[in-house]
Design a protein that fits this description.
Helix content: 25-40%
Radius of gyration: 20 Å
Number of helices: 8
Structural class: alpha/beta
Order of helices and strands: EEEHEEEHEHEEEEEHHHEHEH
Number of strands: 14
Strand content: 15-25%
Largest sheet: 5 strands, mixed
Strand order of the largest sheet: 3-2-1-4-7
Shape: globular
Amino acid sequence: MKLAKNDDLIAAADIGGSHITVGFVQNGFPKIIDEYTVRIKLDSKGTREQILNAWFDAFEQLALTKNKTIERIAFAMPGPFDYQQGVSLIRGLDKYESLYAENIKSIFAHHFNIDEINILFRNDAEAFLHGEVMAAALAADRRILGITLGTGFGSAISQYHATKDLNLGLTAFKDSIADDFLTTRWFRSAYEKAGRDGLDVQRVSYLARRGEPLALKLFDEFSENLTAILHQCITELSPDDIIIGGNIAKAHDLFLPRVRKQLELLGIRVNFHLAQLGEHSAMVGSAYLFTPQTIIK
């Protein structure tokens, strides 16, 4: 099969802890073409070859299915990572350790026979927020805080179409860091500490909506933790809006009203928005690396 050539297309990838999702984005547009993606589950604790082959496979499936060539690639990648050089620095996080010190940019350039300048990397939380900001078409001068609540606690800030990672997950909180209290593993751990089998957030939210006391208690505690972290962030960053995404955000009805109320009692009013693009946001945001932005301050 001869693949169609289109210099305006970017093959964008979202690298998660257990998957890779790829789709084509037209340069400068905040959406995945036809909303079509290829998602492949993988073992992030696997070997170098297993992980890279899964990543290659995702892009190759996308190219064949959409009858397009892979000419430019944008990655939304978790850190730590050298985003300029394309080198993985992930170590001690129980994922992708077999890729430590590997030059992903060079590996992909060789595999797909494209120039390294056509492969770009962006922090996943930063990519998420940028994709959402562009899709929401909010006024450029608004200062927007983005947080992702999932396997990790991601955070970024955006204004005048300039978006940067904040890495607030490492903020000191209680006896540890924020990331340990605002993620899916916190729910699992909290259930286990109560003498129950650890459950995923989807199951905990189902039980909470059915009035299960422990599940309701956990969402109350999660709300308090999120309020405390947001109070600190809002005081320091003064955002006009907050965009919330990630798997836990699907249960927003169980914590967001309480967070709003608690913040108002602290004298803070801010506009909350739920992510519009869902899992596509990080891919769209990473593709914008190929779109020069005019930043006016």
